[in-house]
Design goal:
five-stranded mixed beta sheet; Secreted protein
């Protein structure tokens, strides 16, 4: 008689069914996790990311391909810059950490660089935790963890994350290092790109805090991360300390609001599958079976944004106008209901949103000098 499956095993089996037969899972990285945390009400993204669905391939199969992804040239340039920063045992990287974050410590004459290879993400996560524990117990030395593997619980399912580096200071504290290929010009970089890097780093900080919480005494995870970029138009590394306390707090709060993945999966109809190999009509029906929370901000963070935008516009949903507009409109969820309320054809006059719309309609009519003023009274 076969042994009964545990809840976790059953969930993994269910998520594999949602991906489709023989479709490999796409790892949930920190960038995707930060975007997911920014829109915690979107069950569609939560289940697709939790199941490891390749959303770029899914968007193409739906006929709404995304514009995401770096060119091969950008990837090659980024890898070459990272290798330069970490050359000679990470000497330059450690110099920047000491200069920007820990001037009171002894300058790093060298550092321990533990081997972190292991089988599978679970093995690498365990090896990273062991290396962090060993490094924290060796006070007075610098330790560089190159591409460690961290695990973070997301809606009841583990997400495996790989920061560029984690540095253990001589006092035993831990710092996240994020290496980017966009330049710092005269000591500053593109604010939008720095903000995205900060949100990504905040996810790593949260994952490190979970590792630290299992140690006694728990080491300090620094909330100032090191952002390393090329200096001006050269390939020379420079760095800036970025405080991610705000991003960390927001991300932690948003992740706590995520509906558990197993709850979303249990609510789906039997036979739902998101394999890009399915006919377009079946795939569209599968995707539409999961509620989405679209907002214009999704265009810069989600591969399915074009598909969701088209559906939102077709249904006349006010979410296509932005989250701030949606919040102001209360129970008015469609553009048609908003216009009807503004014309005085529907809506409760005592509703603040309806009253504001009618007042705006009167002011517009007066400004245009039309006869619509009477109709708005």
């Amino acid at each position: 008689m076969p042994l009964p499956r545990t809840r976790g095993t059953a969930l993994r089996h269910r998520l594999a069914e949602l991906r489709g037969p023989d479709v490999p899972a796409k790892a949930l990285d920190a960038r995707a996790l930060a975007a997911l945390a920014a829109n915690p009400g979107c069950k569609r993204r939560a289940i697709l990311d939790g199941a490891g669905v390749n959303k770029a391939a899914l968007a193409s199969a739906l006929g709404s391909p995304s514009a995401f992804g770096q060119s091969q040239f950008a990837l090659t340039r980024g890898n070459a810059f990272e290798a330069k920063v970490k050359a000679d045992g990470g000497a330059e990287l450690l110099r920047l950490v000491h200069e920007k974050l820990d001037r009171s410590a002894e300058p790093p004459a060298g550092a321990r660089v533990p081997e972190l290879t292991a089988t599978g993400p679970e093995g690498r996560t365990a090896r990273t935790a062991l290396a962090l524990r060993e490094a924290t117990g060796t006070h007075g030395e610098w330790t560089l963890l190159d591409h460690p593997m961290l695990a973070l619980d997301v809606a009841g399912s583990p997400a495996f994350l790989e920061p560029d580096a984690v540095v253990v200071h001589p006092d035993g504290s831990w710092t996240v290092v994020e290496i980017k290929s966009f330049p710092m010009l005269d000591g500053s970089a593109d604010p939008a790109k720095v903000g995205a890097a900060a949100r990504q780093s905040a996810v790593y900080v949260l994952a490190l805090e979970q590792v630290a919480a299992r140690l006694d005494p728990a080491p300090r995870v620094r909330h100032r991360v090191l952002l390393v970029c090329p200096k001006d138009f050269s390939n020379l590394p420079t760095a800036s300390a970025v405080d991610v306390r705000k991003q960390r707090a927001v991300t932690a709060r948003q992740l706590a609001r995520l509906t558990r993945i197993e709850d979303i999966a249990d609510a789906l109809p039997d036979g739902v599958c998101f394999s890009p190999e399915l006919p377009a009509a079946d795939l569209t029906a599968a995707v539409e079976s999961v509620p989405a929370t679209y907002a214009p901000e999704c265009l810069s963070a989600c591969e399915l944004a074009f598909h969701c935008r088209a559906r939102s516009r077709a249904s006349g949903a006010v979410t296509s106008l932005g989250r701030s507009v949606r919040a102001e409109l209360g129970d008015l969820t469609t553009v048609e209901s908003v216009l009807s309320a503004a014309r005085g054809e529907s809506g409760d006059p005592d509703d603040p949103a309806v009253a504001a719309l009618r007042r705006a309609a009167r002011l517009r009519a007066e400004a245009l000098g039309t006869e619509a003023v009477a109709a708005c009274r």
